[in-house]
């Protein structure tokens, strides 16, 4: 199995824990909790900022010394409704107690401070179409470059219809050379409908020094340390993924694979 493909650690509790150390990089962290009603997850952010994404279900959240009430209303991820999220700055604690069975993603990256804890969505997040033909997919931007309440994190959701491609035409963001390109590590948390389906993701460099093609199952995470990283959803299987990106500069600038650059128009 590819070292870039991370399977869930189980079906309950903290089922993913990807740190910079375990990924072999410097910036992105990603964890995922699958909680039953009444169960609790709690963490301290330390020197990192976090965005909690209620992927599915509802939870009562306390963070940064404040009770944020019960957040979340999307019971099935493929409803495609805007997510409820919470930004928690560095140096704070958070605690989430499941009001229903729920799935909570924890997206983290280094932070220097200066931002306040805040709700993100569902207001202000609208499903947007991107691409054309069988490259069409639908985006919920949670915290991209236009939002200024993060130090490092870039977070978005993508819904790819069955039989379509996504993160395509192939592109890379693995050099620190702004404005031409930025260095951003990235994780993909994949979900599929129906859940017993599968999808594909390729992570490759133009010079062939990296070339991994993975069959992804529902709940898998793919690491993208560098290179191009397109995804394919076979006919009959709809694909969702949650992207987390971070690097030395909170800008998303990329370069296409020359082989597909003519498709970028």
Describe this structure in words.
The protein has 265 residues and is an all-beta fold. It has one domain (5-263): Jelly Rolls, CATH 2.60.120. The chain is 2% helix and 49% strand. It is built from one helix and 25 strands. The longest helix has 4 residues, at 20-23. The mean pLDDT is 95.
Compact overview of the structure:
Helix content is 2%, strand content 49%. It is built from 1 helix and 25 strands.
Second-tier CATH architecture: Sandwich
Estimate percent helicity. under 10%
> What is the name of the CATH class?
Mainly Beta
The rounded Rg comes to 17 Å
Secondary-structure topology with pairs:
Layout: E1 5-6, E2 13-18, H1 20-23, E3 29-35, E4 40-44, E5 48-56, E6 59-63, E7 66-71, E8 84-88, E9 93-98, E10 102-110, E11 118-120, E12 128-130, E13 137-143, E14 154-160, E15 165-166, E16 171-172, E17 174-177, E18 181-183, E19 185-193, E20 199-204, E21 211-216, E22 221-224, E23 231-232, E24 238-246, E25 255-256
Antiparallel strand pairs: 1-22, 2-3, 3-10, 4-9, 5-8, 5-10, 6-7, 6-9, 8-11, 12-13, 13-14, 14-24, 15-23, 16-25, 17-18, 19-22, 19-24, 20-21, 20-23
